[in-house]
Write a sequence for this structure.
């Protein structure tokens, strides 16, 4: 791989990471102002803020994993995601959070050594995603008009439930994943809340050398699968939106 391709890949990865983290970090920076607003003198019955009385929460959720086909077109594509999430409060504004999900997706298979065609079909993929991180509750241990917005940053892994290696050597594999997110809970009772969250599974694909070598990437025009502008390791965003039901309790 040419040095300029590697430099381009690293620059692009840094840019994508900055975009992925920008919104949660901005929300974290604005949290102190939101928390100070609680201290304005207002009678309890007229205050828009109300205490969250539970310290743990279990969420069951469903949503859409948008995926990312990547530069070669072999990445995970959009599909349903189902999962569960556990929150444990460690301070008035901070939770430790563990999330587990499974995305039902598909991807293209490419035969980089084929005689006339690259794409040889779709592969069904069940992608497991697990992460652990910190959730900053922007209104602390209170709700504002029933809402409890938050920002989240975590890290974990994504891995297919079954290993499938293409003829050219590509596979999804197990990837270290950064997970920034923003969301909110809407409390409908002391223990029950609806939750909506937008998150990004930001992880890296590694492309086999066959994708860049002209002799092994046979096509009608003899072009390789990927040009040398693309690095052999590239980071990609995989945006996800889900909704769920949270049951709060005290352990």
């Amino acid at each position: 791989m040419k040095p300029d391709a590697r430099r381009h890949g690293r620059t692009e990865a840094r840019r994508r990471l900055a975009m992925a983290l920008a919104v949660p970090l901005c929300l974290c920076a604005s949290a102190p102002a939101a928390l100070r607003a609680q201290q304005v003198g207002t009678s309890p019955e007229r205050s828009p803020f109300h205490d969250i009385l539970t310290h743990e929460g279990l969420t069951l959720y469903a949503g859409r994993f948008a995926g990312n086909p990547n530069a070669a077109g072999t990445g995970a594509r959009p599909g349903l995601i189902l999962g569960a999430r556990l929150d444990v409060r460690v301070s008035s504004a901070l939770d430790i959070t563990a999330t587990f999900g499974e995305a039902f997706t598909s991807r293209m298979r490419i035969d980089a050594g084929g005689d006339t065609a690259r794409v040889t079909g779709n592969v069904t993929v069940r992608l497991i995603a697990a992460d652990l991180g910190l959730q900053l509750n922007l209104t602390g241990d209170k709700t504002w008009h029933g809402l409890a917005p938050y920002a989240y940053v975590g890290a974990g892994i994504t891995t297919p439930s079954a290993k499938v290696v293409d003829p050219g050597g590509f596979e999804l594999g197990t990837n270290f994943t950064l997970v920034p997110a923003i969301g909110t809970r809407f409390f409908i009772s002391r223990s029950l809340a609806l939750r909506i969250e937008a998150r990004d599974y930001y992880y890296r694909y590694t492309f086999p050398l066959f994708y860049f070598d002209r002799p092994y990437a046979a096509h009608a025009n003899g072009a390789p699968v990927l040009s040398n502008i693309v690095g052999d390791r590239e980071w990609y965003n995989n945006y996800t939106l889900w909704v769920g039901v949270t049951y709060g309790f005290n352990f």
In short: DSSP finds one helix and twelve strands in the chain. The chain has a mean pLDDT of 84. Residues 32 and 82 are 33 Å apart (CA to CA).
